[in-house]
Design a protein that fits this description.
This is Protein S100. The protein is mostly helical and 103 residues long. It has helices spanning 7-22, 35-45, 56-66, 76-102. The longest helix has 27 residues, at 76-102. The relative contact order is 0.10. Bound molecules: calcium ion (CA). Residues 67, 69, 71, 73-75, 78 line the site of calcium ion (CA).
Length: 103
């Protein structure tokens, strides 16, 4: 990876690479994450920001809500909706802190 990337650019690359890390390599369905790989990703990569990642029922519920086209797999767009969902509360928190520091 280019060393000249900004912090933000590096973060974007990490997000994209994380998706492909969990894409099923041997599946006939290309560029999608299976339910079991997605559960693994929640547990391994998001266990501080999401609660209940080890709970199979809660994970399945999350997968269901993200699986917009109901094919039982998570596409890049569907994965991106998860990232948006996680970052939105962080954005509110940052806004709150900024308001507190200026008032
Ligand atoms: Ca899907």
């Amino acid at each position: 990876m280019a060393d000249c990337y900004t912090e933000l650019e590096k973060a974007v690359v990490v997000l994209v690479e994380n998706f492909y890390k969990y894409v099923s390599k041997h599946s006939l369905v290309k560029n999608k994450i299976s339910k079991s790989s997605f559960r693994k990703m929640l547990q391994k990569e998001l266990n501080h920001m999401l609660t209940d990642t080890g709970n199979r029922k809660a994970a399945d519920k999350l997968i269901q809500s993200l699986d917009a086209n109901h094919d039982g797999r998570i596409s890049f767009d569907e994965y991106w909706a998860l990232i948006g969902g996680i970052t939105s509360p962080i954005a509110s928190l940052v806004r709150q802190q900024e308001q507190q520091s200026t008032s």
